[in-house]
Amino acid sequence: MERFDAIVVGGGPAGCASAYVMAKAGLNVLLFERGKFAGAKNMWGGAFFGPQLNELIPEFWKEAPVERFVTRHVLSFMAENGSTSLDFKSTRFCAAPYNGFILLRAKFDGWMAQKVEQAGAIVAAGMRVDDLLFQEGRVSGVKVGDEEFPSDIVILADGVNSLLAKKAGLRSDFLPEDMKQGVKEVIELPRETIEQRFNLVNDEGAAIEFVGTCTRGLPGGGFLYTNKNSLSLGLVIELGSLVKSKLKASDLLEEFKHHPDISRLIEGGRTVEYSAHLIPCSGLAMMPKLATGGALVTGDAAALLLGTGLILEGANFAIASGMAAAQTALEAKEKNDFSAGSLSRYEQLLKESFVLQDLNTFRGAPAFLKNRRIYELYPELAFEIFEAIFQSDGMPRKGTLQVVKEIIKRRTSMISIVSDLWKARKAI
Amino acid sequence: MNMIVCVKQVPDPEVPPAKFRIDAKTKQVMPPEGIPPVINPFDERALELALRLKDAYGGKITVLTMGSAKSESVVKRGISMGADDGFVLSDPSFQDSDSFGTAHILAAAIQKIGNYDLILCGRQASDWDEGVVGSIIAENLSLPFIALALAIEAADKALKVKRVTTDGYQVFSVPVPAMVTVCWDVGRPRLPSGSGVIMAARKKIPVWSAADIGVDAGQVGKGAARKEAAELSRREWARKCEIIQAETPDEAGTKLAEKLREVGAF
Lengths: 428, 266
Fold this sequence. Notes:
The structure holds two protein chains of two kinds. Chain A is an alpha+beta fold. Chain A has helices at about 15-25, 50-55, 105-120, 165, 190-195, 240-245, 250-260, 260-265, 315-335, 340-345, 345-350, 355-360, 365-370, 375, 380-390, 400-410, 415-425; strands spanning about 5-10, 30-35, 45-50, 65-80, 80-90, 100-105, 120-125, 130-135, 140-145, 145-155, 180-190, 205-210, 220-225, 230-240, 270-280, 290, 295, 305, 310-315. Chain A folds into three domains: about 5-65 and about 105-170 and about 290-360, FAD/NAD(P)-binding domain, CATH 3.50.50; about 175-280, D-Amino Acid Oxidase, Chain A, domain 2; about 370-425, no CATH class. Chain A has 17 helices and 19 strands. The relative contact order of chain A is 0.15. By secondary structure, chain B is an alpha/beta fold. Chain B has two domains: about 1-225, HUPs (Rossmann fold, 3-Layer(aba) Sandwich); about 235-265. Chain B is about 30% helix and about 25% strand. A nine-stranded mixed sheet of chain B has the order 11-10-9-12-8-1-6-7-13, with helices on both faces. A two-stranded antiparallel ribbon of chain B has the order 2-5. Chain B has a two-stranded antiparallel sheet with strand order 3-4. In chain B, helix 3 crosses helix 4 (about 135-140). The chains are: A alpha+beta, B alpha/beta. Chains A and B meet through helix 3, strand 7, helix 7 and strand 15 of A and helix 5 of B.
């Protein structure tokens, strides 16, 4: 059997980025994708930050299937009887190099896989890698059914539940508390309706995040992104708490669609797609060993995902880690040394980049974000405070600070708020 | 045995109908963006039958498709499964050909390839479900024709073809060369091997134009079509969710039953 310089397992952003870099540098690269085509099994909410992809493929927005550019961010605290929102718009975000992009995975991953093929790699879709080959204690290739494919290095980009990282001895089992479950519907609406409802023109897009009743107080949140002709609406909820409370994310998504804030935005729409996926969310605490002799782990497989509460970023971490893995492979090829020692360069590259620096900066966030008061209490508190401020009931008005104090006293204590703020200061 | 298998590239039939759109103006079914087209699953079964014959008797399989240059993906699919060679037939004049035009084009390419014992295709294509191209190819090439074949045995310059009927089987004997369409019941086609996919990825698939196969543009394409689509419609499908509130499972069940009766579900 022909020997490849590098085999990449997984055709998502991490796998495609690493295969693209290595193939462009002249390596003989083979990429295996389990789905019928790259993007068939992959999922994200839909909003994506661009700098890494811009480094990989300069001005990618000119050719990538971008739905819209994010020019409007809304953070909405959902309470039982209403909501309190922060609405941010930037005119600077709607010009190159832009900031946020809204994309659909089936199209985006397909486009990336095409770039990989154009760079000279072979993309073998519909092929599941079942096992790794080992030689002298080092990973020396992959096994697909009965076929063996030897290679100098294997880049594992096989996603959140990477069975191969486990087989390589790089990770142990995950706990439900380490995972969030994402569920999403794509709801079709005419382009003009979307632009009217979300106050957008041309290619402008809105990214709306929700915290509060949409998850029934469970750690997590909701999201709504505007595509060209559809909306991506979904929830992300910590899996452990879903299991404990015996709730189903799909039921909560139906409930979310019935919330008055949402139902009027999706009215008349037609659901054309439903998807669900796991998201690794314990950060550094669940990160596997990143390298062993002959193999590197990237993207979701390495739990490289940043959740700060305000931001949930995975795809650009995936691309950055794929690029770092490719660089490591190229340097190892130069030295013809694929030992664990030589490949430890990968972790060093990630430490020098934002990938491990961000995860380190926000290392306290995963634990902080388990605090139920963020989802149960504070959205209600914000609602009650603003309701009291705006309400006219014929009685003499109280000073604003007085109103805030009274409501806080009724619902919680100043001490617990100060304590949460103190923790937030350190965590996020 | 030398075989030619005609395959068609179609929108992925596994995509839920809700994701398709109908363009009322052009009378075209518009598949969703981002989901690549696939080999017609009926043709994939014809390919499987050809591969079984190759396994049993040896020989060569050539895959033929008519479409755009992008249709090479279905030829490559055939090669990754074990076919030997393939061609794409593509020309602006071929566009919007009806079944007669398509069969005319395929027959011209089959004649160019030459030296064949058996031509196979699926019983129908999953996009338009007409199922007539195979029989028109047989007519154009003056070949014996058998539809809905389940199995084929070779016997001294002749073929024994078992075909499926509603209540049983029929076995016909035909001289070679012959044209046979293949039924669904041949079973699940084999999956490509990894090495097959690698080989197919590296193989250059020649594209033949109308001139290459000697097709007169006046005899194919929209202008030569003997019929025209007048109307296309699709069964509408809607999903609605209502959350039933109740204190007890009994109450919830009763309310659900009432609701289902109200909407006419039973």
